Amino acid sequence: MPLFLDGIDTIALIIEVLGVAIIVGGFAITSWRFLHHRMFHEQRAFMHYRHGIARSLILGLDFLIAGDIIKTVIIVNTGQQVATLGVIVLIRAFLAFTLHVEVEGHWPWQDSRYKNASSNGRRDTND
Description:
Layout: H1 2-35, H2 43-75, H3 79-104, H4 112-119
Helix pairs in contact: 1-2, 2-3
């Protein structure tokens, strides 16, 4: 059993490292693309930069949450650890939620039809 738990701990650590790498790599790639854009002072280029950083943060947070869940639920499942995980997941989920609204411009439960309809001045009644 200790070998199994060591394997799970290693897998959780790898997932968390991937999450950090996604955040750092996404920030670096997005920053490089922004600085090498021909007209990086334009508003449109800045919005692409913000969206790129937010997307890498959202994806990285998902990996970090997955690693925390695996580690806490399977390896260390004391009441205090589970409560701490719950708070961490709530904070990270709130961050991912607000970043999603910032990037997409609409609530997560609304699909792209709402965004297209509202930009044309009318709402889709199917939502």
